[in-house]
Amino acid sequence: MIMNKWFHLLFFSFFSLLINAQEREQQSYIIPYLDWSQEKFDWNIAGNENGQYPNILSELQWKDLRGPKMGIKSVISILSKFQLKLDLSYKSITAGKVSDTDYAGDNRFVKTSELNLQANNGYTIQTRLELSYLLWSSQGFSFSPHLGYYGSYQTLYMLDGDIPLIANKELKSTYKPQWHGVIFGVETNYRNKRWDVSLDINGAYLPHYSAKANWNLREELRQPISFEHKSKAVQWNTGLCIGYQFGKQIEPFISINYTQLTVGKGTDTLYKANGTFHKAQLNEAHANNISVGIGLKILLLATNNY
User: Fold this and answer.
1) Distance CA 217, CA 172 (A)
2) Phi, psi at residue 15, to the nearest 5°?
3) CA–CA dist 28, 132 (Å, integer)
4) By CB neighbour count within 10 A (0-12 exposed, 13-18 middle, 19+ buried), where does 240 fall?
5) Which residues contact 236 (CB under 8 A, 6 or more apart)?
6) Is the peptide bond before 207 cis (omega within 30 degrees of 0)?
7) pLDDT tens for residues 61-94?
8) pTM of the predicted model, to two decimals?
9) Cα(273)–Cα(278) distance, integer angstroms
10) How far apart are CA 261 and CA 126, in angstroms?
């Protein structure tokens, strides 16, 4: 009984301190930003649905997909502890290369073809909608877990280089992956006078990964959808932001972000021009992206010191 009383006393004391620490009022703000990013993306499939004959039949690898990314983030404070965050961005791919390799034996043995092509076109649209909660703040530090929705919609190209792949025809094949699901994480913020540093670590469970491809020079395949991929995925992201506040409402910043996507086993459905189709196993897909950028936080309420 005595132990229970002490436990309850400690619990309510800690809870009272936590409530007092959360009295800091959060601000609403908008952030226009510009990043420069570099990405790579790859996937491979097997010969049949069981992952056999061979275990890797075809492999696509996009490398050095570079280009500018523009976005805007809006944050609205709700009461004193909650914030609703919306982030929309568009990345234009201006440089990149892609390789398409086929095999006849297991474990990438007996290479039957290899194409090295250009990928200097395409785009990525991303959206995040989250609810953030100010869990704790004290002496400049604060911790805010967040939960919400994440979606990414991408178009990747396979294009001719200096010499056309097929004379008198233009290669303009596309692979359009998209994934969306639940995002969750925690943001740690530290403010010292006018300096503002935040670190956001988050993960996403993505039960819906799908992709549609148009191999435009493959006459034996159906157009405009030559094959489809379906699977599930997980994603991790780390973002560091360092800002300095001028006046009451303006805070320019620099940022760096790293994202990694892992797609598990799924299905590959190949559609033929004669109306038949073939199913195989999507073995895996991976993507990672690193970006550095600048932005401007425009505070809609004056900053409160804490």
Assistant:
1) 8
2) -65, -40
3) 12
4) middle
5) 202, 203, 204, 259, 260
6) no
7) 999 999 999 999 999 998 889 999 999 999 999 9
8) 0.87
9) 12
10) 14
The one-letter amino acid at 50: N
Of the candidates 236, 227, 249, 233, the residue with the CA atom closest to the CA atom of residue 297? 249
Measured distance CA(171)–CA(158) in Å, rounded: 7
Give the whole-angstrom CA distance, residue 277 versus residue 37. 37
Residue type, 70: M
Query: How does strand 250-263 pair with strand 266-271?
Result: unpaired
Average confidence (pLDDT) over 216-233: 96
Pick left, alpha or beta for residue 247 (phi over 0 → left; psi -120 to 50 → alpha; otherwise beta). Answer: left
3-state secondary structure of 245: coil
Rounded CA separation 38/93 (Å): 9
**What separation, in Å, do the N-terminal and C-terminal C-alpha atoms of the chain show?**
39
For the chain, the C-alpha Rg in angstroms (whole number) is 24
Q: Which two tokens stand for residue 90?
A: 């568009």
